[in-house]
Specification:
The chain has 262 residues and is α/β, with parallel strands linked by helices. The protein contains nine helices and twelve strands.
């Protein structure tokens, strides 16, 4: 395991920012990581007309508002969880600014928030898909409910567990911090070819098997909720193997935090 993983949190400072940061702090505690929080807003969300003076006033006001929000978050997480988080923000083209920050910071893990139904969006753009293409490392998509809690064990689920599901350097640390039994969920096309999931741990594993059909994700969502899972591990290769639904569909339909393996 590396001595210090770099975790980049991308946020629109709306909705579930606090719960997303709690999940990120817990992740950093488990694997040994440093956290950078990055917020970006498009000028079109700030400036309402073409008058230069009014535009400057709007930008200055938004700068002050954003700076105060960030200071409050820094104070909260420093006092409550002794978390040292570096906060930065900028105004500009959202995708371009995110891409620049990823290139400069070179994170090992990118954290996104998700809304209850739809994937996280910045001014209507599908940032989830953009990050999946841009960042080849691990990605955590944090749900607003039942997230990870600092200093507490996690309830871990694994979808279609294979060796590649645990290709992350910090997989052992996640498994060590998970409650027993771990939950394994499999989606299969042929019920006669069920194989035992590959989960490298001595902990007990409770297995669920679903037929891969139109209601598979709905069934998965029900059992994830029933078992109080707060982190579900999946991997990118599943889409290519047509074993599971598209990752972005799961982001929209599963009310659970997802950890997408690199």
């Amino acid at each position: 395991m590396k001595n210090n993983y770099k975790i980049l949190v991308l946020s629109d400072l709306k909705g579930n920012t606090t719960s997303m940061l709690k999940s990120t702090v817990r992740l950093a505690q488990m694997i040994g990581g440093s956290i950078e929080f990055f917020h970006v807003k498009s000028p079109t969300e700030i400036v309402e007309n073409d008058n230069q003076l009014s535009a400057n006033r709007a930008v200055n006001k938004e700068f002050t508002t954003t700076d105060n929000k960030i200071k409050n978050l820094r104070t909260l997480f420093s006092q409550e969880y002794n978390a040292d988080i570096n906060f930065t923000f900028s105004f500009g083209n959202v995708k371009s600014e995110i891409e620049r920050r990823i290139d400069e910071y070179a994170p090992d893990i990118v954290v996104l928030g998700k809304r209850k139904v739809k994937p996280l969006r910045f001014i209507g753009d599908r940032i989830t898909e953009f990050i999946l293409k841009k960042h080849s490392g691990a990605i955590m998509i944090a749900a607003s409910e039942n997230g990870l809690e600092p200093n507490k064990e996690i309830s871990l689920g694994v979808l279609n567990g294979t060796e590649t599901s645990f290709s992350m350097d910090f997989a052992k640390e996640l498994l060590d911090n998970a409650k027993e039994p771990l939950k394994s969920f499999q989606m299969i096309k042929n019920p006669t070819t069920v194989q035992k999931p590959h989960i490298p741990t001595d902990k007990k594993v409770l297995e669920y098997v679903f037929e891969h059909n139109d209601s598979a994700v709905k069934n998965l969502s029900k059992y994830v909720s029933k078992n109080n899972i707060n982190l579900l591990c999946i991997n990118r290769a599943q889409k290519k193997r047509n074993i599971a639904s598209d990752i972005t569909e799961m982001v929209g339909k599963l009310n659970v935090s997802l950890l997408v393996a690199n």
